[in-house]
Amino acid sequence: MEMKKITIAVIGVGLIGGSIALSMRRDPNIRVVGYDVRQEPLDKALTLGVIHAGTTDLQTAVREANVIFLAAPVEQIVATLQHLQDMELQPDVIVTDVGSTKAGIVRQAVEVIPERVTFIGGHPMAGSHKSGVEAASDRLLENAYYVLTPAPGTPPEKVERLTELLSLTRAKVVQMDADTHDQVVGAVSHFPHVLASALVNLVAGYDEENGWHARLAAGGFRDITRIASSNPRMWRDVLLQNREPLLKIAKDWTKALEDVIELVEEGDPEGIERFFQTARDFRDGLPERKAGALPPLNDLYIDIPDHPGEIGRITTLLGAKQINITNLQIRETREDIYGALRITFHSQEEMEKGEELLRFFDYNVYRRS
Ligand SMILES: NC(=O)C1=CN([C@@H]2O[C@H](COP(=O)(O)OP(=O)(O)OC[C@H]3O[C@@H](n4cnc5c(N)ncnc54)[C@H](O)[C@@H]3O)[C@@H](O)[C@H]2O)C=CC1
Ligand SMILES: O=C(O)C(=O)Cc1ccc(O)cc1
User: Fold this and answer.
1) How confident is the model at residue 169, as a pLDDT?
2) What range(s) does the ACT domain occupy (predicted)?
3) Has this prediction a pTM greater than 0.90?
4) DSSP, residue by residue, 191-234
């Protein structure tokens, strides 16, 4: 029996958009079209085999789509919702997003999305401090929660259809209302990013006076501040979108810190120990997320002009430097003059040597990190 082909449009082909695209590609009946405001991520995504086709024209990307994932930074998600108003879309289309905040986006969608279009807010609760399509992985969302925030009037069969599609990400799909989402995620994700960066900035100031701070910064400091390496532009937008819940959490935080300070001022050993014990009990009881263990990848992806002599040239260059490869694959030919070659190297070290060599000979070389 011929299976129905589905077209998915991914608007914003970065870390999350790329990871969703890769998950969707697990189903051979799904065609993924990527849209981005920049050509560069589209070129990379084609070379890395993340999307089937890419365009910088929004109408072209969404015209055939049965499901549209808005995966740009949150402020741009709101802007894209507005553009969709005037576009030609499939009659049964589902529009969803992956933004880290929900209430503002859902409110905007209600205002601007035409009635014939179903919008369902979404937020995969997994990510990375890395950004860009080169960090995308079809396993990024595995075992993570994926929150959907359907409005009360959303047809349940549409929510079911989206949930079924999202099973390709292997995430655990749950539903809650957008305000509850913003309060909870504000506390467990947004506010920790503020704290991590505030702590780093504080220590950076101390470090200007005394350079031992950066040098002695050990495991604890690094663990609690890992997320301070996240994308500043993205977090700027998240804070601006989730202002009210965050301001309330910040007030509660100030009070929590004042309580500890008081215990220290009073020199209260039991109180201080209880403070640490209470935190440890909750922290140790957190459910563990068993993400799929990622095997190390020794693959490089190379843009090559579409003629056979080029592959021979590349293998000769690598062979001359005794760089061993274990596999070579030509990815499906792209719609322009380039093809994409995937080379698997024997080891990480050989991959790095190969990368340097091929870049020296002016090839566009990408890794999927
Ligand atoms: N980074 C993370 O860990 C997580 C991020 N999110 C959400 O996912 C969304 C995307 O974040 P990332 O993938 O991390 O960012 P990213 O920086 O890796 O990718 C964003 C992509 O969107 C493109 N873009 C910018 N403006 C656009 C527009 N107007 N239309 C279409 N594309 C546009 C950029 O060129 C870029 O390729 C954000 O809304 C973020 O809140 C959700 C869960 C986790
Ligand atoms: O890397 C981390 O610890 C994160 O916090 C990942 C993350 C970032 C943004 C989200 O909206 C959801 C998850």
Assistant:
1) 97
2) 299-369
3) no
4) HHHHHHHHHHHHHHHHHHH-THHHHH--HHHHHHHGGGGS-HHH
